[in-house]
């Protein structure tokens, strides 16, 4: 089947979704996806970030689709033509969804362990605005303890349902779910039950935001200060193939190996994730590479980093000095003769 | 007096019971359909009738039936949508409460047409007493041999049950209803696949409104062509209208589609005119989701033609100057009504009823409500009016199900037609802080103040 | 935090209740017992002072053969299921457009001040509670409220006075019985 996205054509198998086809093409046309996860059955369609315009339904029925379609759950038809980044309607919709996802988000990236590998941060960077139009009080939830391994921050959740699907599809008994409804829907066990079964840790890896983070890594480091290595061990429960996040010789965190769309290549078990923080437990394969614009590369050790020359450094420093003079406050009321001296900054 | 197909027997004493209903000719359509017609004959009659689904969306019922997947060989289901929750609508409850066997009769014939052997009536939980009435009526129908195995010796089996909801407007959306019928949260499904292919328990399913199904027995007895003669060319048949608000005689009326709005509001046969003779200010003709119409667009369309109670006339002018007949929830407002307060009220409803599954609706409906509440309580800012417009535009069309549109349209229409009232709220906050504002002092009397106030 | 209040509830799955549950289960295919969840929850709640504790929800899950979380999810989604004890006579006033334009707000204020409670607080004797709900489908008969299985419509202050007296005197039946009179 032939499908054309933003003018780029590709042949795909029947049953492929528009999003999958776009990922095969790659580049700017790939719609962002906050809830779709290729390895979780039934995921997608909820966040509405990946809306695209279908300008031609198919060769057989060339009519355009009147509404924007969620590309992650819309199958391609032969001859379909799709506008993604090339359509203003689509980019407007992405801006809209980004705004909706952010109005009640706490924007606490500075204290969030997900910062640096957060899909919502990336989405906001691309489609968000630095001002908010939301002056109302943000929604908050009572904290809930879901056990020693996983930290739940409901205020950050965007209700992608991925963690619920992980529990349904990878573990033998789901104990958490989505409770309540509307804008007070929340991820909870209802009875503060610890979520502990062999694969529950994957909830952390699939969470697109900082709602589910690794409690054993909590506040240990910013992710970009860690050095990620591919590593493996013989595990009788899972593939044993992980990324270990190191600080010096210490393994601070273990995760699945995430691809360019931040999906894990293979799910891992809780033992690998939480119980093996000793370097000797692992065979280190080598550095894990991340996509070009990931902030994790800020501490990149896979290539040489040339010293940074800031040509305007001198002017910046001068400006700072002037600002310092302007905003400085005297520690006591000044006598008239002191005022001028103070203004000059000679204090 | 217009033709009555659904309510003609409603005043017969005891019509709620099987004995009386049967004596009055009830269940005759089942005999005719099962003994003399094929399922396809029935589908064709319904197609010929031109009946548009009475739940609100107005999709032709016969066409919906023809989409059901019969090839896969999977069991098929008919589900009756009795989750009537659209503000302003209370017609299905009236039918089910007073003449429950009519719906059951319609369910049997329709199930036979779809070759379904297990059908359900999904009723909202708040209609608990109607649920019990229906349960009882179904028992009566089983006892009389209209349901169960080998009905009338024709070899056709049908199990019909009534299922009760738990309080959620969203379950009126057909896929959310199916989820709820499966014992889950009422989160609408992503379409496609449509229920006609994969619905209840992944089986092909048709979901129809109570009023639509109740019209089927008449069509079977009198023919779809006869049905199509009633009403107008594009709006065939009769329609139940739930009339409420500031009118003399609120209630459920069966009208022939195509009578004028003027006649409906002012004649003694229907609403009986405005309550206390106060002037008409606005009309929501088809339940809370449809655009509100200002006084000058109620009796006449923008072209100066008479506005009729029909699908095409009600939507004449598109959203710029028209509305929709929707579910027939006809709410009339007089001059004491504050449109801003009413819009906030509707927004609160949608905020409360959003299922929370997709982001634009989950976040947007709450935002709309909060901004409207601020304006209504005297804390609005001039830019809030444009902000409201922008939020609603960002929700509309971007959600999984139509609840997002339903939340957006009333806000858009209120701003489109009553922007000056929003401006008045923003510029004279002290005047509107009293909950009863506009009651003694309708907007018309204070409108002149706006001309003096500059931003 | 445990979001349930962990208030004790006596669970009594009487043979009559179990028979009703089994009948409801028979309305659905044998391999789809979960479908009966909502009707069963209504029956179980009715038989247990109109609310559902965690233990009771767990019991329902066990009977149907589903996980407890599946029951919690559903109970918290629908407004008619209560997760804490509520007043015996719950006055649920419809607040949506038609009822609002026909004066329901004043009636709610009146009822609350008469009972000496705020919205959502049961009276000290546990007899009454006032709640505001969204459209109940009685717009033509506004203002109105739901009380038990039925609706009280065309309300006035006098009717509310009478209703409160009747409730106190035990003259109000909360459960509807089909009666072909």
Overview of this protein structure:
Helices cover about 20% and strands about 15% of the residues of chain A. With about 350 residues, chain A is of the alpha+beta class. A five-stranded mixed sheet of chain A has the order 2-1-5-3-4, with helices on both faces. A four-stranded antiparallel sheet of chain A has the order 12-11-10-13. Chain B folds into three domains: about 20-230, NADH-ubiquinone oxidoreductase 51kDa subunit (Rossmann fold); about 240-335, Ubiquitin-like (UB roll) (Roll); about 340-450, de novo design (two linked rop proteins) (Up-down Bundle). Chain B contains 20 helices and ten strands. Chain B has helices at about 20-25, 30-35, 40-50, 60-65, 90-100, 100-115, 130-145, 175-180, 210-220, 225-230, 260-265, 310-315, 320, 340-355, 360-375, 380-395, 405-425, 430, 445, 450; strands at about 75-80, 120-125, 150, 155-165, 205-210, 240-245, 250-255, 280-285, 295, 330-335. Chain C has a four-stranded mixed sheet, with helices on one face. Chain C starts with 14 loop residues before the first helix and ends in a 13-residue tail after the last helix. Chain C folds into two domains: about 15-75, Orthogonal Bundle (Arc Repressor Mutant, subunit A); about 90-170, Glutaredoxin (3-Layer(aba) Sandwich). Classes of the chains: A alpha+beta (about 350), B alpha/beta (about 450), C alpha+beta (about 180). Chains in contact: A-B, A-C, B-C. The interface between B and C is large, with 63 and 46 residues.
